[in-house]
Design brief:
The radius of gyration is 13 Å and the shape is globular. It contains two helices and six strands, in the order H-E-E-E-E-E-E-H. The longest helix is centred in the last third of the chain and has 10 residues, at 92-101. The protein has 107 residues and is mostly beta strands. Residues 1-6 have low confidence and may be disordered. The protein has one domain (4-101): predicted glycosyltransferase like domains (Thrombin, subunit H), CATH 2.40.10.
């Protein structure tokens, strides 16, 4: 069997950053999570319960993230979730998202 890390196209970086999974009609459901790893293509999340996140949702990093990122839930194992970022054009929102993942403050 191939090691999971060998199958990845990009290495993940450790994060340990607070995040929020938001979904549902009018984005009424919010599930706090911890983003433990990330790469340019996705992230590993830990939720504080066995809440089943939907296939698609919006991931916000920290309390000041106003844009978030659309993600697809690729796998789930207990309280862990692997998500893939949905493509979007590069811009300030993506830069802020990336800086938030790295623990930096954005203006």
């Amino acid at each position: 069997m191939t090691d999971t890390n060998e199958r990845r196209k990009m290495n993940r970086e450790p994060s340990m950053v607070e995040g929020y999974a938001v979904y549902g009609r009018w984005f009424k459901r919010t599930v706090p999570c911890l983003i433990t790893e990330h790469s340019g293509r996705g992230a590993r999340l830990w939720t504080n319960s066995l809440t089943k996140l939907p296939e698609k949702f919006r991931l916000y990093v920290g309390p000041n993230d106003e844009a978030g990122r659309d993600v697809v839930n690729v796998w789930r194992k207990g309280v862990e979730h692997g998500v893939a970022f949905q493509p979007e054009s590069p811009g300030r929102a993506f830069l802020n998202f990336t800086l938030n993942l790295r623990g930096a403050r954005t203006a």
